Amino acid sequence: MDTSSENLFLLELLEDTRATKVRNKEELAVEAKAVAKYLRISPRKLKPVCDLVRGKDAKEAVAILKFTPRKSAGLILKVLESAMANAENNHDMDVESLYVAEVYANQGPRMRRYKAGSRGMANPRLIRTSHIGVVVY
Q: Domain 9-18+29-136, what architecture?
């Protein structure tokens, strides 16, 4: 799959969800969310990069992800930028003051493939997929 069709595929997978209201101790905060589903990378490879940006300012998180040399950093960056755009366009939030509240990489469905093994047997391979979610406020 070439990069342009891969980017188009990833953009189609990004799900924009409505803002949900969360009760803080005294105030009502609006949060913006973005989710990418069925990405063909295992959650085990995504989780260390998620830990890098969780709890950071959005601009700082973007800078960290841009200079992290891993495939998972690029995928998380796309979802983070989508969440920031949702916050700005759908909820009239200030992009400069956004905070990355949650970043998670959950397990998606596993595809079972088989590879030829010794003595005429078939050895199963699990192709793991992930769901990435980012919540900013």
A: Alpha-Beta Complex (3.90)
